[in-house]
Write a structure and sequence with these properties.
The longest helix is centred in the N-terminal third of the chain and has 15 residues. The chain has 288 residues and is α/β, with parallel strands linked by helices. Helix 1 crosses helix 2 and helix 1 runs parallel beside helix 4. Strand 4, helix 8 and strand 5 form a beta-alpha-beta unit. The strands form two sheets. A seven-stranded mixed sheet has the order 5-4-3-6-7-9-8, with helices on both faces. The protein has two domains: 64 residues, Helicase, Ruva Protein, domain 3, CATH 1.10.8.10; 189 residues, Vaccinia Virus protein VP39 (Rossmann fold).
Amino acid sequence: MTSAHPKPTEAAARAGDALAAAAAALAAVSDSPRLDAELLLAFAAARPRSSVLAYPERPVDRELAARFAKLIERRARGEPLAYLTGEREFFSLPLSVSSEVLVPRAETELLVELALAVVERVGEPTVLDVGTGSGAIALAVKRARQEARVTATDRSAAALAVARANAARLTLDVRFVESHWFEKLGGQTFDVIVSNPPYVRSVEVGGALAFEPRLALDGGVDGLDAYRALLASAAEHLVLPRGVLLIEHGAGQRLELAALAASCGWRVVAAHDDLSGKPRVLELAVSA
């Protein structure tokens, strides 16, 4: 029985040939097939990508070819590159990731930038990251503001294990709490609450997203279930009146989410687009 996906490196004698064949195999699933191939060959060879690029004539031995072929097969099935290499950069932080956590996206860096802007004039700010996953947002805020007291929650113990390991490796002192939304936080309050909650409609959780944890993606029938939970309780955990809630959302959800926020006693301070111009974050405060 033959494999459903090509094994481009098995007969390749040189790195350049292996990369060309792998990039062709990934063209249907990746927006950057050549880059993916380069990163995976570097990972398989335990060499920097610069070394792979500098020596395209370097022979690819049978053992390396087999490792590379397996990685290319997995990537060709749609598995995220970050899960294959075990790492993803976020806000210049090298984060370990696994299938227990959502792969950090570049557009989510906007949440970090906005949180830092909000607490710029606060001496020792308190920040809460709800649904932290890999710890990306919380760790990026802590790295930028060492004096900040940062707390991060997640309902998944497995995700928190990844986040804690990232914090330890980066020597960043973030407090992690296993909690569904705000349940385990008691009466604690924060200057800023940030969240990148599940907001994909249930019927749309599939395809390329199938490899990532459904718990971190599925926002219910209309994609807004997580926001209902956040908007119902977040005000109790903000330092008022200055406290701000920052929530990431899908590109087509802004108007509906703003209306939902208003019905729950929030006002929109600002609406922020990501670098590609797509609606991405709502900045909310409790209505007076």
